[in-house]
């Protein structure tokens, strides 16, 4: 008998990706699927690619429908997971793909979200220093945001090794699925295709404080982050270009060595061979972050570029990886590092 | 009788865009069309969209075939324009869309291109301070690179007004036409679609010294540029995100005022209303650069984002604008600021 | 003083394309711009590419706001144009981009639209036999649907010349702008990109009876049409593949001659050279239909393929072409046959 | 110890997809990887998504390098598999993803390929009537072409049940990976994006006789096929729209019942619920064909639409499915029917 698993928010993109991965996982048994306004409809109407689950009817997202499972994955709008988790019991593993419990600093939360902070949970980025330990045996996990996953893993080696100044500039391109299934004119195919656009410029994107939190922890000192997200004409993928002033006398060799060390033994972190640069398509559907790093000697900057599938390692794959760790399963179980390409 | 105009490199993307614009221009009369390996074939085989010119046979690119014109536009691989221009006569206006004569510093040229410098020509970015004057009556024009067009116009107001430090970070996304028609595996549709990728990271892109040159001139002091180009899944367009540390006590209002002043009266530079951000699709086929600027107070940085059509204002439109100026025609003649959208 | 022109539905895709064309037209002077739920907002919020009109405020679509113009273009949801036109006066030229007045047969209208028929207007496809004559001096014009434009112009020569049986199969791919700006999940960028999908299969698409009407007129006998539309991952463009059984002893040469004859002198119809096939990108932003035709001898079928920009010749360009004709202006005025490519 | 498996043509798209699937298959052990002009280079240079195999060096494609394996998958240009297979031994399972051994009629082969016929092998489409039996224990398998996979599975139920006339019209859209990694201008990203184009019109596509062969076998009488392929702006996927005259008095219910019967128990064939139509994105990376069928009563035609991933079920997934059958493994082993979406 498998591990009974519920997915709340099963009709959205994150929920669909969770189910795609869970359906191929050898230990999880898919139980309740719930939704908000789509409750009462069949999953196949929203996720036609999930053929083996197409006839499953979506229940309402309530403590009752989610009760009786060993693991509950939450893929809900922010503000929803705190009250729900409180009713699920301390013995249930709750893995929250939403933002509610990622930030440790209530003031940061309130500044960016405008609501009271729900408290922080163990943070689901095992590859960060100390990250894995915080997740073993945990009963609550806050899955990172997709941008912070890419940016934190791209920059922590340089900051942790003291090779870069704690003042970073990040420009990242994301596919349209990062905005979820929300019906807004600028997300229509006719607007997205053939166009790259900027949004939330000037430090207003809600993933910014999460990057600050992770990178400051890695650097051991406060890190400033200038973050500009852009929307690119693709369904999935994030390419994050991350730069910081190099500390004096840093060499390209020292930089590369720091990344090689930091990523050694990490199944899901790939440092590309010298001279090759990441493309998001290399990671499609895979639980991988591919990174390359360079030293721009003329500009005196470290440049690290990371590619990630925002729905896979950036959300659902990362969530399953954390669940594996929390439950004491092999961390890689049911996850692939091979993308679907071309 | 119109101004007799030749286009060298008519079977490439820049040449095609020159012809699209020239075909709608009231003063230019299209004369010789030349090509390299495509000489002897019909234009329609390479540029089927140029219906009215489809039957024109491409001549070889030689001084002879280009002789007898008032204006010659060169859209050639770098290294070709210097010797050719020398044989075209000083009374002919030569507008070079290639890189050969953009850089004033021979050492920069040699470091990035590895060949002897061919000398610099009047630089074709009229919107820069003093740029328009340098072009009136000129007989040789070096059209800027596509990335430098976007970046220089996005940043010069902040630097010229002393509002930003002379140390900038640029991350730009370009459509695939920026690489021309070269047959390389990573430019195949199956590789480009669904993917954003980085390339020429770490300061090696050849447009970097051109940005340094323009921004240093605007700032009145040497400017450092960290430039990372990325390839986005679209045919045309550049979105450049440009940031620099804000000088102490700069305000958002002062920043915005500097841009409003710098762009006032410029027909092809658009500062978007507050709260709106550029998308490349807004500029498709138009000779426009659309810009927005913000002050990120938490990160202490100025962030300017520019959208441009790399083939229009970024190459062929800019070239025609310069030709208008050099010939004493109205600067906007034959150029549109309205894009094809969606 | 120009021809005073109003556009109703200016915030939609068809309205935006009308304005893009009208802004470059030497005779039309843009007057009132109206909208439905967007009334009271600035055009620039919806059509940021229309830079020169960005500050124009959208009025409500009423007979009053549209009064006082020489020409009124209607780009409205179906069912809206009849009552509105009735109040505009018989001396005003009303060009309706909607479906209301395209069908001559009330029964067909009612079967596909479920509402009473509003009566038919002169049909705006000048290239069809007799089409031009019906439009000269007209005060009401029904602009064809985008699919019927492509299909009718691709097939009429074969049917009119008796070279094909009156039983045709059409499969057409359309870009997402064909669905307008309606907010539906399957039109989101993340769903459209990377995917081709079928819809309205089995004869239910509302453009079917319009194809039947046009092709039957061309053939001089009733024509059956099996039409399957598909949605392709592009913003604009229709590629229509149209086939019919070849009549006995038809030759490829006879077929080609029929098309060459039918298209002779037509500024907006292009028969491609033998061996070249249409691509929608060849027509982007142009008022052109590019066609190729072949005889499949093994299958005994005529195959004609047409490419058109659904918003240009397929809607707004066709509308302006008709307005030119109705007003006695040169038919090509303000229209280009050169697309924006690549 | 697993089944030793070699892949010839490992640096191409089909080879890469074979490796993606084989890497997740519980029984196959990946042995030699070979290539043509890429021999001597690392796989990671060509297939960066295949992270676990990135360091494997490509051998030359020769009988020697392929010797010593239980299974050899060939993903080679046509004309290469016959001589190679002759030297591999009769006890080795050779699965050919190329065209050489698909056609049973030498005259058809010679007409479309212009070379002598290499003889036919058991045909790898298990879902066709009798298809599975021909593959059990086979030592040679000809994997179908991608278009014939989609078209044959979409139409065989209607033809086998006598519900449609043996004269079919097929228009199919394919993603750019269907053309492989060949460096041709029309396959460049800048040309493919934003455009749908036709090619090989008029019956000249080499997959046509394979469709004729399969559909004639299903119908029990000669079937005529008019096939028009189109290139769509996506990396993967085929959407095939297939129509034929309905036989007299066929009803929609009878048609649907025929498909439900024909697909019953087929793990990889999905008949969508009524009212839903296939999209290629539903099948990305999955070994699935999704089909819908309708009766167009006005036009008197059966319309069947199929979506398939050209590289998965259309090539590599189909190949592994056949290998499973030939080796007596469970047919579904290592294959998924869940796509990567959105």
TrEMBL record, chains A, B, C, D:
Pathway: Amino-acid biosynthesis; L-arginine biosynthesis; N(2)-acetyl-L-ornithine from L-glutamate: step 3/4. One of its GO terms (molecular function) is N-acetyl-gamma-glutamyl-phosphate reductase activity. GO terms for biological process: L-arginine biosynthetic process. It is found in: Cytoplasm. Keywords: Amino-acid biosynthesis, Arginine biosynthesis, Cytoplasm, NADP, Oxidoreductase. It holds the Pfam family Semialdhyde_dh. The active site is at residue 146. This is N-acetyl-gamma-glutamyl-phosphate reductase. It comes from Actinomadura decatromicini. The gene is argC.
């Amino acid at each position: 008998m498998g591990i009974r698993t519920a997915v709340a928010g099963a009709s959205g993109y994150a929920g669909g990706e969770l189910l795609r991965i869970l359906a191929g996982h050898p230990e999880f048994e898919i139980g309740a699927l719930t939704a908000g306004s789509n409750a009462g409809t069949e999953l196949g109407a929203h996720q036609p690619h999930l053929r083996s689950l197409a006839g499953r009817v979506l229940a309402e997202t309530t403590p009752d429908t989610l009760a009786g499972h060993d693991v509950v994955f939450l893929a809900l709008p922010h503000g929803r997971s705190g009250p729900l988790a409180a009713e699920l019991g301390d013995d249930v593993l709750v893995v929250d793909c939403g933002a509610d419990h990622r930030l440790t600093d209530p003031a940061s939360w309130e500044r960016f979200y405008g609501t009271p902070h729900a408290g922080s949970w163990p943070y689901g980025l095992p590859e960060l220093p100390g990250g894995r330990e915080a997740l073993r045996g945990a009963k609550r996990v806050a899955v990172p945001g997709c941008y912070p996953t890419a940016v934190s893993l791209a920059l922590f080696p340089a900051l942790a090794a003291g090779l870069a100044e704690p003042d970073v500039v990040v420009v990242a391109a994301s596919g349209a699925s990062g905005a979820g299934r929300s019906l807004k004119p600028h997300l229509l195919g006719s607007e997205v295709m053939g166009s790259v656009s900027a949004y939330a410029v000037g430090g207003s994107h809600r993933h910014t404080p999460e990057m600050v939190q992770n990178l400051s922890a890695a650097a051991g000192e406060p890190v400033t982050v200038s973050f500009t997200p852009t929307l690119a004409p693709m369904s999935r993928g994030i390419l994050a270009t991350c730069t910081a002033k190099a500390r004096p006398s840093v060499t390209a060799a020292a930089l590369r060595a720091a990344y090689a060390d930091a990523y050694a033994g990490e199944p899901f972190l790939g440092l590309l061979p010298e001279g090759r640069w990441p493309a998001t398509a290399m990671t499609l559907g895979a639980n991988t972050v591919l990174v390359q790093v360079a030293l721009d000697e003329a500009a005196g900057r470290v440049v690290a570029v990371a590619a990630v599938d925002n729905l896979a390692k950036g959300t659902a794959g990362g969530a399953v990886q954390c669940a594996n760790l929390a439950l004491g399963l092999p961390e890689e179980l049911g996850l692939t590092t091979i993308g679907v390409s071309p």
